[in-house]
Amino acid sequence: MTTSQETETSPAMTAVKPLNRSNAAAAPPAPVRIVHLGLGAFHRAHQAWYTQHASDGAQWGIAAFTGRRPDAATALSAQDGLYTLIERGGSGDKFELMTSIVEAHDGADVAALSRLVAAQATALVTLTITEAAYNLAADGSLDLSNPAVQDDIDVLRTLTAGGQGDAATVTAAGRLVQALAARRSAGTGPIAVVSCDNLANNAIAARAAIGGLADVVDPGLGAWIAENVSFVGTSIDRITPRTTDAEIALVAAECGYVDSSPVVTEPFSDWVLSGDFPAGRPDWASAGAVFVDEIEHFENRKLWLLNGSHSLMAYAGQLKGHTTVAEALADPVCAAWITEFWDEAQANLPAEGLAIPAYRAALLERFGNARIAHHLAQIAMDGSSKLRMRAVPVLKAELAAGHSGTGAARMIAAWVAFLRRAHQSAATIADSAATELVAALKLDSGADLVALMAILDAQLAGDAAAVAAVTVLADGFAAEDGAAQG
Ligand SMILES: NC(=O)c1ccc[n+]([C@@H]2O[C@H](COP(=O)([O-])OP(=O)(O)OC[C@H]3O[C@@H](n4cnc5c(N)ncnc54)[C@H](O)[C@@H]3O)[C@@H](O)[C@H]2O)c1
Ligand SMILES: O=P(O)(O)OC[C@@H](O)[C@@H](O)[C@H](O)[C@H](O)CO
Questions:
Q1: Do 255 and 234 share a structural domain?
Q2: Mean pLDDT of 195-217
Q3: CA atoms of 121 and 191, how far apart (whole Å)
Q4: 372 CB less than 6 Å from ligand 1?
Q5: What is residue 2's predicted lDDT score, i.e. its pLDDT?
Q6: Residues 6 or more apart from 332 whose CB is under 8 A from it?
Q7: Ligand 2, closest atom to CA 238?
Q8: Last residue of a domain, which of 265, 293, 321?
Q9: CATH number for the domain that contains residue 413
Q10: Is the CB of 390 within 6 Å of ligand 2?
């Protein structure tokens, strides 16, 4: 096990000491200039890392807010925002003390969010709130039928009209619209919103979620957002599984302090961004980020090749009894399905400028890193939002080109078979659209599949050839599953 230069802890620290700025003899916190929503593992492995490693990182502090529960903020606040990043390579771990998060807040503290977003010094807001949290309909617009969105519209209308009340905004977009209204009132000027979620066209998705909500609530605010908020698109990449107790114990043993909130990630990291930062940004390029004029092909390369094969493994791999990405990849049948899907995805990406053969080779090495226990069950969550971006575009492009699209159809079929199995065993369906999925699963066999496909994409569900292809593949998974079980 190796310990990087940055990880050296203060000699004053001992194994019994909790991690905090005074025990760690960390530099004074940087001033808050970035507000983040979604204080999960990925933000702490990715954007916080790029900010810390930027040449001017000492000038850019992050105030991070949780999404749904206060826990992560409570734990991190007790450590003054500090935590350990464990960079887990194939042959060893490196430990780095992370200092770029300087404040951690409960996402429900909209007063703090509004104060910080309205502050003159704040230049940008980053988001890692999960795909489902954007509450978008299949056509990419804000899903106005979503009950949480409806509740936020009511709350925001009351607030806009100058009213008070006990009700508070609950969605990330609702809270951000409230905070952007505070910035508008404060007259502190333009700001950037940088989606770092695995969404196709994530800048457009963020604009649809945030701008779309403001337009409904208060057209004046919607117009201000259209004029003053720059939605920046990104392709973000660093495999960061959920932290386990083993990492907490490892840090205590290796670093000599007690850290309740370490994050484990892979050595690889990538960040491609496109858009304007009207109030400035850290020099992330000095830490390896790349700024481009056109981002769509980079997004699709990552969403299809990496995330697409992740989702394929998540469903097909679990149906075949695997638990982690590395296990699924080691299964020659799963590996062949990945190759099949990658060939289809690659055929629909430009041949120039994306270095796809090298990208695929690197993915095989990254997925094969068995020291990263990336659980398929975590990747399988919220498949209804994810497959819309990971499988549907490839299948549609292949069908339009007169090809079978079997690789992409197999991903959808594995999802259907996985959901059917969960439904038959009364297991919980971990998806924000679980109610719709369960309603579909209650239909007769055949009708259930069409209804599930319609949740992903209405046009695909109406395409007899696509339905037939997915049906055959889903039945194949079911037959194999049945044979394995008995
Ligand atoms: N983990 C990775 O390897 C990785 C890599 C690239 C991109 N991402 C993106 O980052 C997102 C978060 O990943 P993570 O690993 O940090 O997950 P995580 O589970 O550690 O954290 C998720 C964060 O999102 C918040 N959240 C969840 N549902 C929400 C909702 N409905 N409304 C508001 N906030 C909500 C949670 O409170 C938490 O702060 C992913 O969904 C993905 O879009 C993750
Ligand atoms: O984070 P999600 O849930 O959108 O997707 C699960 C994985 O595919 C994803 O986390 C990848 O590991 C990540 O996108 C790699 O950069």
A1: yes
A2: 97
A3: 10
A4: no
A5: 37
A6: none
A7: 16
A8: 293
A9: 1.10.1040.10
A10: no
How far apart CA 484 and CA 276 sit, in angstroms, is 54
Tokens of 147: 């009950």
Contact 338, 313 (CB under 8 A): yes
Local structure of 262: helix, strand or coil: coil
| pLDDT at residue 3 in the model | 39
Question: For ligand 2, is residue 237 a contact (CB within 6 Å)?
Answer: yes
| pLDDT tens, position by position, 256-293 | 999 999 999 999 999 999 999 999 999 999 999 999 99
> Are 309 and 286 found together in one domain?
no
Confidence of residue 167 (pLDDT cuts 50, 70, 90): confident
Asked if the model's pLDDT at residue 94 lies above 50, the reply is yes
Please tell me if the CB atom of residue 171 comes closer than 6 angstroms to any atom of ligand 2. Answer: no
- Give the model's confidence band at 403: pLDDT under 50 very low, under 70 low, under 90 confident, else very high: very high
- Ligand of minimum distance to the alpha carbon of 325: 2
Q: How far is the CA of 10 from the centre of ligand 2 (A)?
A: 34
Name, in order, each residue with C-beta under 8 angstroms of 147's C-beta and a sequence gap of 6 or more. none
The DSSP line for 184-230 is HHHT---EEEEE-SS-TTHHHHHIIIIIHHHHHH-HHHHHHHHHHEE
Region 381-399: mean pLDDT is: 97
Is 379 a pocket residue for ligand 2 (Cβ < 6 Å)? Answer: yes
Instruction: Say if residues 182 and 218 touch (Cβ distance below 8 Å).
Output: no
Q: What is the mean pLDDT of residues 314-321?
A: 98
What is the mean pLDDT of the segment spanning 443-453? 97
Q: 474 C-alpha to center of ligand 2: Å?
A: 24
What pLDDT does 478 receive? 84
HSE (CB half, 13 Å, CA atoms) of 191?
A: 30
d(CA 179, CA 96): 33
Report the C-alpha gap between 294 and 67 in whole angstroms: 30
Distance separating alpha carbons of residues 427 and 69, to the nearest angstrom:
24
Domain edge (last residue) among 258, 274, 293: 293
Structural domain count, the chain = 2
Specify the pTM: 0.94
Domain that holds residue 355: 297-485
Task: Give the pLDDT score at 16.
Answer: 64
pLDDT tier, 10 (very low <50, low <70, confident <90, very high otherwise) = very low
Contact between 152 and 62 (Cβ < 8 Å):
no
